[in-house]
Amino acid sequence: MWFKNLRVYRLTKEFALTSEKLNELLEPHAFVPCGSQDAARYGWVAPLGRHGSELVHAANGYLMVCAKKQEKVIPAAVVNEKVEELAQAISEKEARQVGRKERQNLKDEVLLEMRPKAFARSRLQYAYIAPKDGWVVVDASSASAAEELLENLREAISSLAVVPLAAKNLPQQTMTHWLSAPEAPAQFEFGHECELRDPKDSGSVIRCKNQDLCAEEIHNHLVAGLQVHKLGLVWRGGVEFLVDDQLSLKRVKFGDELIEKADSADTENAAQRFDADFSVMTLEISALLTDLLAAFGGANTDTASVEEIVARASRAEAEQTAREVEEVVF
């Protein structure tokens, strides 16, 4: 359950739902396995898995949810081979070429035939809402996976005003300054990995792994004008991660002391162990993100969420309509 990736979204409105109410809203959207002709299904499951039934796990004011996505696996090569066989048969029988549109129809027919017998592949996506911290944290390696979870969560609860977490200072410039000094920010140490890019040439990338980031070789690249877009850091000696220019954290590794801290809790079953892990992890992530944001100059709160932008547009439209009506009346 320990998160390996952190994609953080800032709540732009207070999240007022209790765990009970959130669970109630998620229940109609609970996961249902793929039917014979479904290509994919997405829904909510209990974070505790077989050890729990609730769709929301709450601890210390944090609300964890878990989404499950199931997809039918049909290899593209197998589909293309079957389509080619059918197209060839038509060409030989009718002495004509099979066009692009007809090939697409053949492909749809092949998929329709293969889908009921295809294997189903499932994956779980965890996230938690931190109302008191003002953010949502998703364990996702890609932005698209995180956005998919948030979109389904928004659909289930009707409203979720969030924006990707942003800092006041540009991350790439700040990280470049740290490494050029070289001096890591307070509470942090440099790790052994970074990615450098040329701001004038997006295709020019240098990736360093298992390297001394304070070495002269890396310093020379920075003097030449390259900027740091990904940087390995160690927080308080206990959490290792790679932060990028979007403030997303990847390859997060919690230290043995933290794992042992959770394991040392007096637990009697799997549910209690999960609760102990969740409590320790969320508290550590909260402190980590607070220190990280401070290192980047604080959170940028000027960015509006999609819901706020739509609301502003609606208010502006209503005000414009009212003015037009007033002009007609007077």
Radius of gyration: 25 Å
Largest sheet: 7 strands, antiparallel
Strand content: 25-35%
Q: What oligomeric state is this?
A: single chain
* Tally of separate domains: 3
Uncertain segments of ≥5 residues (pLDDT<50)?
none
Cα shape: globular
Number of DSSP strands?
A: 12
Distance between the termini: 65 Å
Structure description:
- With 330 residues, the chain is α+β, with helices and mostly antiparallel strands.
- It has three domains: 7-74 and 117-164, no CATH class; 79-114, no CATH class; 171-295, no CATH class.
- Helix content is 40%, strand content 26%.
- It is built from nine helices and twelve strands.
- The strands form two sheets. Strands 1, 2, 3, 4, 5, 6 and 7 form a seven-stranded antiparallel sheet that branches. A five-stranded antiparallel sheet has the order 9-8-10-11-12.
- Strand 11 and strand 12 form a beta hairpin.
- Helix 2 (76-94) crosses helix 3 (100-114) and helix 7 packs antiparallel against helix 8.
- The longest helix is centred in the last third of the chain and has 26 residues, at 270-295.
Summarize the structure.
This protein is an alpha+beta fold and 330 residues long. The chain contains nine helices and twelve strands.
What's the layout of helices and strands?
Layout lengths: L6 E5 L7 H8 L13 E6 L11 E3 L2 E12 L2 H19 L5 H15 L4 E12 L4 E4 L4 H15 L4 E3 L6 H10 L7 E11 L2 E9 L6 H8 L3 E9 L3 E6 L4 E6 L1 H8 L6 H26 L10 H24 L1
Antiparallel strand pairs: 1-6, 1-7, 2-4, 3-4, 4-5, 5-6, 8-9, 8-10, 10-11, 11-12
Helix pairs in contact: 2-3, 7-8
